[in-house]
Design brief:
Blueprint (H helix, E strand, L loop, with lengths): L3 H6 L2 E5 L4 H5 L2 H8 L1 E4 L3 H10 L4 H10 L5 H26 L7 E4 L8 H15 L4 E6 L4 H11 L3 E6 L2 H20 L9 E6 L1 H14 L2 H4 L5 H17 L5 H5 L6 E5 L12 H4 L6 E5 L1 H10 L11 H13 L4 H37 L6
Parallel strand pairs: 1-2, 1-8, 3-4, 4-5, 5-6, 6-7, 7-8
Helix pairs in contact: 4-17, 5-17, 6-17, 7-8, 8-9, 9-12, 10-17, 12-16
Length: about 375
Amino acid sequence: MASLRELHGRGQSVWLDEIRREWLTNGELARWIERGVTGVTSNPTIFERAITTSPAYDEAIRDRLLRDPELETPALYEALAVEDIQMAADLLRPVYEATEGADGFVSLEVSPHLAHDTEGTIAEARRLWRAVDRPNLMIKVPATPAGIPAIEALIAEGVNVNVTLIFSPAHYEAAAQAYWRGLGRRAEAGKDLRTVASVASFFVSRIDTAVDRLLETMGTPEAYALRGKIAVAVAKQVYRMFRARFMPDAFPDLQARGARAQRVLWASTSTKNPAYSDVKYVEELIGPNTVNTMPRATLQAFEDHGRVIGDTALEGWEEAGADLAALARLGIDLEEILERLQAEGVDAFSRSYETLLEALERKRAAILTAVRPQEV
């Protein structure tokens, strides 16, 4: 049985990749924080599951509609999400303060409909930053071509950014450069670098899901031998790039002014293939200056039977390179797969967002119908 604090001992933060109103009010998140969780991530899919499957939001929805029956559904969703993020940020504020702003963050994503709109992303990120009004907020912005310049602008303004939907080394490099440029602009403007932080969220398990499907279609011994290996291989390639750019003293001028490294965050770490260990993407990606964000089920599984056997993200880099070379020899275009996964990720979040709004609209209509006209 492993503890989350063992991961902290290896320099890895553990964040919860879920948020629900009842966990914020019944002590669930507080208990996870006591056990070693030091951050929370959310996305449209997480909020869609939370709001549509839990009655915990019904009272808040009713109260808001009583105050403003003309409140549009997107604004209603945003109000609920902002409340959740504020409560989570307040619970994590002691972590943020104890680490002097290095940890204790809660992430809120801009609308997935803005993934290809730079100016729209910047405007919404600014608005959400002001609405939540917590220093330990991170605004999630996708590493799409339109998202990259938005990340740079937001970092320059002092908005903490969680760069999401990173699937490839190319996506990671673009995100890291955007952070670097944003820090440079902020330094040139004479602004404090100590107050801004960022993580680069690399999505792990979805890579194996996509690549394994092709390998199994090939059906050769060489193909079967690579199943379940490619996601971690790409992740280790990204981690090696991170260390070359940010560790240990790769940016001394900005470090001297208080700039922080943009940590790599392992996202999508719940195992999708039941043939693999349910803690595979935790045990195989342990390393200093990283974050692993996990849904509650993965956190529970890790505490139950996970192992901390060393800095596994620092090991096996040559083997990872060999696995990627072997994949290329099979004629599989990994870069094309990774680009497609990012596009599919944007589409999936957009669908979740639309499903959420549709469900909220139904709740809104039912509540307004049930309430007496004079109460509205």
